[in-house]
Amino acid sequence: MSVTAFLAALVAILAGAKLFGELAERVRQPAVLGELVAGAILGPSVLGWVDPHAEPIHLLAELGVLILLFEIGLETDLRRLLRVGSASAAVATVGVLLPLGGGYALGRVLGFEPLLALFLGAALTATSVGITGRVLTDLGRLQEPESQVVLGAAVIDDILGLVVLAVVAGLAEGSGMSGGAVALLVAKAFGFVAVALVVGRLAAGWLLRLVDRLRVRGALFVFAFLFALVLAVVAEAVGSAFIVGAFAAGLLLAETGRAPEVEGEFRAVALILVPIFFVSVGAVMDVRLLNPLNAENREILLVTLALTAVAVVTKMLAGYAPFWMKLQKHVIGVGMVPRGEVGLIFAQVGLAGGVLAIAEYNAVTLMVMATTFLAPLGLRALWKRRPGPRVPPTGVAELVAET
């Protein structure tokens, strides 16, 4: 991609995100929904102005979701998150097992081979914490107990989903994975979170005091950005997801009491990078596959509808897993529905490994997009935007509403 093409794509992404985000807000829907629609229109299947697989766009999108999760971490109370830890663990566990089993059963009913059916189930397991977190922030509901359960469960889901992906990919390659290897992968993924919260909590305060002594401009911003990047790199290296590391970095800096300052420093950067992520997710969608008049699309659409139904129902049921807590469990279930970028990773791995043919790949991709669009609509219908005076944006709750 040339520099000119890259800059033109950025113009299209940012202008489209703002335009369609504004239109979504005007019809009382979350701005993220407009950004996803903008991506679908700007993507290869319609206008062809944005290629989400182009390396520069893809990297900027990944950086955008990293910053989004970092800022959601800044807005999250670690103590409150830990108080609903058992509920999040229950939702996450059921939210992986039910979709995995449901997707496998559906695949077998449709006549697919066991490995393909297993891959379909695996693609239904993970939840996109970025999509749900953005919608909850748009609605001003990030501090609600249900939101905390969803955030915790989505992070655990990402870790479990990566374990499932590693196992299924190993089976696809014919190498498989032993029980010991799976246990080690789980231990490394969750061990990172535990060690990061303990060691990082001690280090964050000390490092901030060191930064306060510096006179160079932007020291706090650079330190916070480096902190998020380092934890993201370490998380990826030990078998977890980089967005889990970014979320942990935000949680730890929030504990220092400096979150408002850090949020203010990140505002301008997030306004540019976060919309790139959502537009890129929308651009993956092949709108041409939605045409039922094309005979080749009908089978794909039927499989997509079945997959989407299983994807929605199983995650909704997972919301009722913490039966001992008095929560709006239907809200938790809807918050767990979007697959987002995580589901797309499963689809890409399946296609590259030869497990998914192009028809099944398209069906999984459409399912991912359907759940990604349904979740904002569902949450908006269940939870009205929290009323309150309009104040100048200072934190992530106000920041992402502007994107």
CATH architecture: Up-down Bundle
Rg, alpha carbons: 20 Å
* Beta-strand fraction estimate: under 5%
Shape summary = globular
- Supply the number of structural domains: 1
Main pleated-sheet profile: none
* Helix count, DSSP H or I runs of 4 or more residues: 17
Structural class by sheet pairing and helices? mainly alpha
Number of strands: 0
- What is the CATH C-level name? Mainly Alpha
Task: Give the SSE map.
Elements: H1 3-26, H2 31-42, H3 55-74, H4 78-83, H5 85-109, H6 114-123, H7 129-138, H8 145-173, H9 179-212, H10 219-237, H11 242-255, H12 259-283, H13 295-318, H14 329-335, H15 340-352, H16 358-382, H17 396-401
Structural features:
0% strand, disordered C terminus, 403 residues, globular, 75% helix, mainly alpha, Na+/H+ antiporter like fold, 17 helices
Descriptive notes:
The chain has 403 residues and is mostly helical. The chain contains 17 helices and no strands. It has one domain (3-401): Na+/H+ antiporter like fold. The protein has helices spanning 3-26, 31-42, 55-74, 78-83, 85-109, 114-123, 129-138, 145-173, 179-212, 219-237, 242-255, 259-283, 295-318, 329-335, 340-352, 358-382, 396-401. The protein is globular. The model is unreliable at 387-403 (pLDDT under 50).
Short structural summary:
By secondary structure, the protein is an all-alpha fold.
